[in-house]
Amino acid sequence: MFELKIDNAKYWRDCVESIVSLIDEGLFNINKDGISLKAMDPSSISMVSFFMPSKSFSKFSVEKSSAVGLNLENLSKILSTTRDGESLIIKDADNKVLLEFVGPGGKRRFKIQMIEVKKSVEKEPNVQFDAHIEIIGEPFKDMIKDAALMSSYIAFRASKDQFMVNARGDSGELEEQHEKEGSAIKKVEAQKNADATFNLEFLESMVKSCPLGSTIKIDLKTNEPMKIGYNIGDSEIVYYLAPYMEE
């Protein structure tokens, strides 16, 4: 049994949007620490790891740990109706999840059927990364948009003092070079150079929910999955994306 309350319903909406960008169903684990979810996308190219701490809720009543499987597309559609000034109460009710939006002078209630999620993930990939980059979200989104003009893939290269972006396609090539002290980059740390190429469509889905002004953290190792993440309020969203390897 659980009953949770979020004073600003849009906060939960934004968190769910960061997850549903990659997966259409998932298993939320609810315990005294908060809510977490780990899942692979249907193609098994990427993984999402989400955690929202109990302190994000104005009420967090959990009698025992629960695993709640939900169709995230349905959940996202309901949350998209969130209105200004509404709070949100989430609780279990006869194998369903009750969502109660409480606004000035009124309430709205939805019930979503819990589902059995066939495939869940317990651990994140164990990669010993060689480079760590911290970059402001808006410039990074612009890099992805620029690269999409040239290719379906984007290559990242991190060295001691630089973060470089490259995209090549039939129509041309993009090269970007960002210095360690540049306006977009907050930090570049590299034990040795790291170079890998990734699918742009997946990256676009991963970063589109990054809040305005937030920092995106990137970890790289040559031809290994990348780790990319950011915070939405107190919540942490982390993605892993397998590299693209030319055949």
Question: What would you note in describing this structure?
Answer:
The structure is a single chain. With 247 residues, this protein is α+β, with helices and mostly antiparallel strands. The chain has two domains: 112 residues, Proliferating Cell Nuclear Antigen (Box), CATH 3.70.10.10; 111 residues, Proliferating Cell Nuclear Antigen (Box), CATH 3.70.10. It contains four helices and 18 strands. The strands form three sheets. The protein has a nine-stranded antiparallel beta sheet with strand order 6-2-3-4-18-17-16-10-14. A five-stranded antiparallel beta sheet has the order 5-1-7-8-9. α1 packs antiparallel against α2. It is elongated, with a radius of gyration of 20 Å. It starts with a strand and ends in a 6-residue tail after the last strand. The mean pLDDT is 94.
In which range does the helix fraction lie?
10-25%
The tally of structural domains comes to: 2
Structural class by helix and strand composition: alpha+beta
First-last Cα distance: 50 Å
- One letter per element, helices H and strands E, the order comes to EHEEEEEHEEEEHEEEEEHEEE
Task: Give a quick account of the main beta sheet: strands, pairing sense, barrel closure.
Answer: 9 strands, antiparallel
Work out the radius of gyration: 20 Å
Question: In total, how many beta strands?
Answer: 18
What amount of the residues lies in strands?
over 45%
CATH architecture call of the largest domain: Box
**Strand order of the biggest β-sheet:** 6-2-3-4-18-17-16-10-14
Low-confidence segments, given as residue ranges, are none
CATH fold category name of the largest domain: Proliferating Cell Nuclear Antigen
